[in-house]
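Per reviewer request, we include the raw input and output of the structure prediction for the construct analysed in the revised manuscript.
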Amino acid sequence: MKIATASYPLDVLPNWAAYEDKLTAWVSEAATAGADLLVFPEYGAMELATLAGLDVAGDLEASLFAVADRLPDADALHSHLAVQFGGHILAASGPAGFVGHYDGARPVNRTRLFAPGGAIGVQDKQIMTRFEAETWNVAPGGPLQLFDTSLGRIGILICYDSEFPLLGRALAEADIILVPSVTEALSGYSRVRIGAQARALENQCVTVMSSVVGDAPWSEAVDVSVGAGGIFGPPDHGFPDDGVIALGALNAPGWVFGEIDLAHVAAVRANGGVLNRRDWDAQIGRADPVTVVALT
């Protein structure tokens, strides 16, 4: 299959039609290039806040509500495009899950996976970054899910979630793990990329990282973003020696394309040079307790 993963810039949208045009153009470009799976980044939906005006988009709390209000319309558009172009689309994540606007409920960071047959899967972020938890007050969401699709089994680890091995291990049956991200510095991008590559190594699967790129000075939350799309596998038989299937130039907007064959995932899990996924349980009993030895 062919995968398109986004290095996605955020725009000030003068009206809803501008968003429809932008998203349609992005999806059309990837579909025309033959992509079966399109992956947009974490918090890419924050550009929807500009539809309510720059004052709202620039207010951390108000922007959460503005985007949450627009997500149903955005979902309808994504669903239509998935059907129209016959591909699977992971929508850019955004704040969702309010019970009500005035009852103290907090949003979760939610992405949605759209299938060409009309089905929709929802995945929430599990572990909040310091900014999300301490400043923005975004809450952890519902549990991890594994989506059984016509492309294979797909799991999703949103950005920071990819840095936690046990979350990755929970998706050990996934053929592909999607890692939508937004990071404000090269160090953050590096952490998520290393996490995505580590999960590909441990699970002997393919991981797909998408990124927000560029400046959005109208938003306190996503004002500066550094990143690139990337597609990774285990450095083993049937995959590149460095595990990098495709990698975009840093901060260069556009799609990053890569072709994968899930038969290689099955083969490396069965008879790879190493068998990380099978040998995971060999750690049990050897990692705890650690013996402290004094050397003087």
